[in-house]
Amino acid sequence: MLDLFRKRRMWRPASKLKGAYDVVIIGGGSHGLATAHYLREHGITDVAILEKRYIGSGAAGRNTTILRSNYKTPEGARFYDASVKLYEGLSQELNFNLLFSQCGHLTLAHSDRAMFVMANRAEVNRLSGIDSRLIGPDEIQQLAPAMQVDNPNATFPIMGALYHPPGGIIRHDAVVWALARSADQGGAEIHQDTEVLGLERSGGRVSKVKTDRGTIAAGQVLNCTAGWSTLISDMAGVKLPITTHILQACVTEPFKPLLHVVVVSSQMHVYISQTDRGEFLMGAEIEPWTTYRMQGTLNFLQDVCRHSLELFPQLERARLLRSWAGLCDLSPDYSPILGQTEVENFHVSAGWGTYGFKAAPIVGKTLAELVATGRQPELIAPFALERFYEDRLVSELAAAAVSH
Ligand SMILES: Cc1cc2nc3c(=O)[nH]c(=O)nc-3n(C[C@H](O)[C@H](O)[C@H](O)COP(=O)(O)OP(=O)(O)OC[C@H]3O[C@@H](n4cnc5c(N)ncnc54)[C@H](O)[C@@H]3O)c2cc1C
Q1: Which of 84, 163, 253, 339 lies 20 to 30 Å from 122 when distance is taken between CA atoms?
Q2: Whose CA is nearest to atom 32 of ligand 1?
Q3: 75 alpha-carbon distance from chain centroid
Q4: 304 Cα to the center of ligand 1, angstroms
Q5: In a mutational test of the pocket of ligand 1, which residue from 354, 362, 366, 396 has the highest number of ligand atoms less than 8 Å from its CB?
Q6: Would the pTM count as exceeding 0.70?
């Protein structure tokens, strides 16, 4: 019976921490687990993933699962496109149905200025080979028949939208579990309930990782803690220009399928999709104050419902089922901070704000390459920490944030 139970487990139960590992990954979210998964391709298997709670307990298990690549900068668009392409093959690669639905993504434009910005984004996207175009109200209505597109009393009339057909939604918990299973099968140890409390440095390197279960030596250390990334980087003496905020989301009770596309409005500060369970999933912008307290607010619920009802008045009598909050690590240019730092063997995946889940596979792949080769892969070079000292920002302001 015990054998049967063991066979059914998706990953091995926690063992004792060893005294040393080639690679220590801090954070058992989508980025840490994806990195462990892709380290297998380089034959690196002496890996520990240290997670202070349970895997997926951070933003990986709280996000609204929007995947897309229609970013504003060529660097961003190229990077996220590589990730969406990896997601397209991930169910097969991990032998796990991740329920990836490429249902399409609409970013609504409510002003002449927004139309101009969307047209510009579509051009940048197409130059990178990304399917993205500006469409008018008639086509929007065809894609989302249940949405109120032509409303003469609208506070924010819909003038057009940036339409991105490959965008869509996926099951976040499935992504987390499947990556964890693969990492475990490759030999990586997943240590849940293991909190990193400090990092010891010697000779310009991180030599030891102190946890609440003992101290371990590490060849290379990766900080994949998203909302908590500054706290871990501070332990290594690396300053990150990041502030941590909460982002909230909520779902209604389930309905029959009504909405087959993701709808986002930056101006209305709202985005909506319908999950595979039928719930209307609604989110907004980050809260402006910094905090590590993951508690929702009534203001969020009032605002998100008001804006959602402008688009979907038929939800007027829908009941909210649940709401939640998660942490977001925001960088000044709304782009990530990825790869090497001034501490030789200490690498980061941070600055993910509200948009990092879509990047998990490409983060894992490129960080694994960095660990294996010691070189920063070309795709993530624009996102190096030095850019803030060299005035080379990659501004995704307005294309990230509420657009997810
Ligand atoms: C409400 C919400 C909606 C979002 N919607 C989207 C979306 O639609 N699309 C999108 O692409 N992105 C979205 N995001 C952002 C996305 O979820 C994150 O950017 C991404 O998940 C971050 O990477 P991660 O999964 O590795 O982080 P996390 O899952 O947060 O992993 C970090 C882990 O580190 C652990 N940790 C922290 N400190 C320590 C320590 N001292 N020791 C050990 N472990 C530690 C934490 O417990 C946590 O599990 C959303 C986020 C939120 C909150």
Answers
A1: 339
A2: 225
A3: 17
A4: 22
A5: 354
A6: yes
Write out the DSSP string of 105-171: EEEEE-SHHHHHHHHHHHHHHHHTT---EEE-HHHHHHH-TTS----TT-SS---EEEEETT-EE--
Same domain, 277 and 156: yes
Angle, to 10 degrees, between the axis of helix 74-94 and the axis of helix 360-373? 90
91 within some domain:
no
Query: Could you tell me if 153 and 58 lie in one domain?
Result: no
Strand, coil or helix: 332: coil
Whether residue 224 is found in the same domain as residue 317: no
My answer on whether 51 and 177 are in the same domain is yes
Distance from Cα 140 to the centre of ligand 1, integer Å: 32
Do 230 and 258 share a domain, yes or no?
Answer: no
Do 195 and 322 belong together in one domain?
no
Residues 342, 344, 350, 356: is their CA dihedral positive or negative? positive
Q: Which residues form ligand 1's pocket by a CB distance below 6 Å?
A: 26-32, 50-53, 57-60, 62-66, 195-196, 224-228, 232, 247, 249, 283, 326, 328, 352, 354-358, 404
- List the helix and strand counts (H, then E) for the chain: 10, 18
pLDDT one digit per residue (tens) for the chain, 404 residues: 556 555 668 999 878 999 999 999 999 999 999 999 999 999 999 999 999 999 999 999 999 999 999 999 999 999 999 999 999 999 999 999 999 999 999 999 999 999 999 999 999 999 999 999 999 999 999 999 999 999 988 999 999 999 999 999 999 999 999 999 999 999 999 999 999 999 999 999 999 999 999 999 999 999 999 999 999 999 999 999 999 999 999 999 999 999 999 999 989 999 999 999 999 999 999 999 999 999 999 999 999 999 999 999 999 999 999 999 999 999 999 999 999 999 999 999 999 999 999 999 999 999 999 999 999 999 999 999 999 999 999 999 867 656 66
Token pair for 377: 């892969």
Paired with 348 in beta bridges are 223, 339
Last residue of a domain, one of 330, 349, 368: 330
Q: What's the CA gap between 134 and 128, in Å, rounded?
A: 16
**326 and 337 fall within a common domain:** no
Rounded Cα gap, residues 215 and 101, in angstroms: 43
Ligand 1 atom 4: the closest Cα is on which residue?
63
